[in-house]
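Tokens as discussed.
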């Protein structure tokens, strides 16, 4: 398999996104006033939209990180249980005895 293909695909996607961003900026070049608590700032509408999208993506990632961490921790725990069961199975016929069966996963 050609390893340059994913890099090319990434470059083409980046180029298309850059062209889209330039066109979007040219279309939305009106200036808008943003009123903050202590001051007012006048900036292009495209910049406001791009900043809000960026902030939304960052907040979405921050909110989803704890759940992803918990899932990864549970996967590691279950893999450990699977390895223990496989080791136990290779040594005896009965896998689930009272001493090696864990009732609940890590939360």
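Sequence:
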């Amino acid at each position: 398999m050609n390893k340059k293909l994913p890099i090319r695909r990434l470059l083409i996607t980046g180029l298309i996104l850059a062209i889209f961003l330039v066109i979007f900026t040219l279309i939305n070049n009106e200036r808008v006033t943003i009123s903050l608590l202590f001051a007012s700032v006048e900036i292009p509408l495209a910049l406001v939209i791009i900043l809000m999208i960026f902030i939304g993506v960052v907040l979405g990632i921050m909110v989803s990180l704890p759940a992803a961490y918990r899932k990864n921790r549970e996967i590691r725990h279950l893999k450990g249980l699977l390895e223990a069961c496989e080791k136990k199975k290779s040594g005896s016929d009965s896998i689930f005895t009272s001493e090696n069966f864990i009732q609940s996963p890590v939360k």
